Amino acid sequence: MIMVKGMYAEKSVFSKLLILMAIVIVCMILAMLPLALIMLLSPVKNSPISLRTMVIIQDLFIFILSAYIAQNLFFKEPICEAMDIKRTSLLTIILGMAAICTLTPLTDVIGIWNEKLQFPESLGWLNQWIESSENSAQQTINIMLGSTSWSGFIANLLIIGALAGLSEELFFRGIIQKILIKHIRNPHIAIFITAFIFSAIHFEFLEFVSRLLLGMLLGYLYFYGKSIWIPICAHATNNVISLIITPCAMNKNWAWANTLYTIKVPTILIIISTIISVACIYAIYRLRLKKAIF
Fold first, then answer.
1. Quick one: how many helices (H) and strands (E) in the chain?
2. pTM of the complete model
3. Residues contacting 17, CB < 8 A, separation 6+
4. Cβ–Cβ < 8 Å for 85, 79
5. pLDDT tens digits, the chain, 294 residues: what are they?
6. Between the CA atoms of 230, 234, 240 and 241, what dihedral angle is there, to the nearest 10 degrees?
7. In a 10 Å sphere around its CB, with 0-12 CB exposed, 13-18 middle and 19+ buried, how is residue 233 labelled?
8. By three-state DSSP, how is residue 253 classified?
9. Phi, psi (rounded to 5 degrees) for 83
10. For the residues of 156-193, what is the DSSP string, one character each?
11. Which of 28, 79, 283, 294 lies at a 20 to 30 A Cα distance from 125?
């Protein structure tokens, strides 16, 4: 069967999501071969280098390749237009980065509250599964962050920070959100559903609500900015800052990083920073509107 650009453009939203799920499954299967080779050929099991390589492969196949195939099937426009891969002003990029940075105090507080949530005793098995999953994920992160060389630290910033921001935004905002907005009249509902899927697919219950809020922010940056580069840069900024201040072998002597990681922000400042974040999104909307008018 020959793949024609936009051949499924008129399908229902439910059909598109099912097809997208099938695309992701196929890409996951394609990724298994290089992942298996890495596991077999790696001299040290779960070494930082092998784990970083596996993350790169997962991002390339599951998110970027899936997004590329999906945009060919669901959109008739050229790829740059279909996914809004277009130039935007430096000011909108800076505003997007500022929006996600100023939302951090709120997401941190929500994250602390989220960590305290537990299911009833009747669902104790679920609590155990969540705890086991979180511990496993934390062990993987600890191994990757355990590098004592600058090359390893920079590799983490590029792979876990920049590449993750690029690949996830192309997939979630560039494909899923755009599909939902086309079929759902209310864009706010579409942005919420996309953010919900974005948070759920990470399988980190203890950060679910804070990541949901983060996903909504990225969704609004994309929706109002009309350029995928705005949420990509904002997402990458959030990841990079988190990596820099998360305790690891490289930053253990960085007093300023340790201070940022442990600082307790007063409630009034959380409210002010959240308002600033919303103001940044509104400024992006006004800039885009002004450009459209003139």
1. 14, 0
2. 0.90
3. 176, 179
4. yes
5. 567 888 999 999 999 999 999 999 999 999 999 888 888 877 777 788 888 889 999 999 999 999 999 999 999 999 999 999 988 999 999 999 999 999 999 998 888 887 776 667 666 666 676 667 667 777 777 777 777 778 888 998 999 889 999 999 999 999 999 999 999 989 999 999 999 999 988 877 778 899 999 999 999 999 999 999 999 999 999 999 888 887 776 777 776 666 666 667 788 999 999 999 999 999 999 998 877 543
6. 150
7. buried
8. coil
9. -110, 10
10. HIIIIIIIHHHHHHHHIIIIIIHHHHHH-S-HHHHHHH
11. 28
Q: Sketch the domain layout of the chain as residue ranges.
A: 87-293
- Specify the amino acid at residue 38: I
Q: Token pair 């390749």 is at which residue?
A: 65
DSSP letter at 43 equals S
